[in-house]
Hints:
21 helices, 3 strands
Amino acid sequence: xxxxxxxxQLTEHMKDHWMLWSASFLAExxxxxxxxxxxxxxxxxxxxxxxxxxxxMSTDPKVDDWLSECxxxxxxxxxxxxxxxxxxxxxxxxxxxxxxxxxxxxxxxxKSKARQTWVEARKKSDFSLFAPYLERTLDLQREKADxxxxxxxxxxxxxxxxxxxxTAVEIERVFQSLLPELVSLxxxxxxxxxxPDIGILKRPYNVTKQRLFAEIVVDAIGYDFNEGRIxxxxxxxxxxxxxxxxxxxxxxxxxxxxxxxxxxxxEAGHALYDMGLNREEYGLPCGDAMSLxxxxxxxxxxxxxxxxxxGFWEYFFPQAQRMFRDSxxxxxxxxxxxxxxxxxxxxxxxxxxxxxYNLHIMLRFDIxxxxxxxxxxxxxxxxxxxKRFKDYxxxxxxxxxxxxLQDVHWSIGCFGYFPTYCLGNLYSAxxxxxxxxxxxxxxxxxxxxxxxxxxxxxxxxxHIHGSRYRSAELCRRVTGKPLSHQPxxxxxxSKYREIYGIG
Length: 503
């Protein structure tokens, strides 16, 4: 058998494997949206079984044989899609074979049960209900880190699952560069000579009309409803089951126009990335996103650099004004645009503004790193969270649902995930700055409801590559520079200088 034959069998096998894995995504999506409450126990067993079968398929010894044959040939050399797929599949195979199938099944079942318990605990704002499941989840995550192996600290092994190649020390270094800039900016915003009227967005807004408006907006920026849909959940997310089937979920509030809309645009940004991946490589590294940081760069770019821009609202505000006449009839475009860019400390991460959002991430990074190290116990999380939150934001957390219970991530074992949000913000600013440089007049495009040039640029420069390049390498290829915090700070200062009148 030739290396080309091995590559064909390898890729066919892994594409079939991804179909099986996609079935678990579908079961998880249904669990979040339409599954009856009584289905929790059987759904947990189903997800555990699917995880076990998927693990067995991806760790089949034949995969190692095919990879070895490919690696000994010219197929593994150079900057080609085949070489990138071989490298990516080797990495996945080596990681997955370190996890026994019994561990994988046990972890999947626990994630499902813990997720359901978290929903109930969050609803009742009672961390004690969730704590026992979090204890078990942490034990499994530490065990997983030991199974993967690591050079410096266990947290590195978990981060690598979401941001390949990144380490806690490197992320800490990035955060330390960004933190003083954000502290300074937020101090200036707090003492600024003028502040937007956020009350504009906190009026009655019919939820049915909000759903319709969100659909109009995401359709305009490129979300294809022939290949996707929007549903409502407790915690916004996006998932894809394969080419032509993408789901975004958000939540709406009857007296807050911004949160449901920005959530929909954010998740649509994720979906646009998935829609732009190479369909022929679906199920293989070059048909999948490189990292969550890169994925987050796309959602944050559409939510913030686009969705909070003046041009965006020059186009959409007249439509919003017609749809929500009672609440926006006397509001000017200028005041509405300023309100959409209001900045102030707040409890909820997904509702945080651009100037404070990364502080939420730094808090979570410090806490979960301490949890994995064993420096912080589960029972002490609410107290530690509330103390740090007061130090970072100057706010007293009033209940667990506004504090340590607000995010779904720990319930599904996603330790090491949070830092990717901050990395995504940094990538988004750097990519958008480059897009503006190469595509003069983007803001004018938005003002005319045209988002095609930007989407095309993102598809050609970022989406189509999938995991062909590591995130840091892709950033350098696209922008000509390594990742830096400066484009984000420059973007924020430019925007807030106009709105808040800061220096």
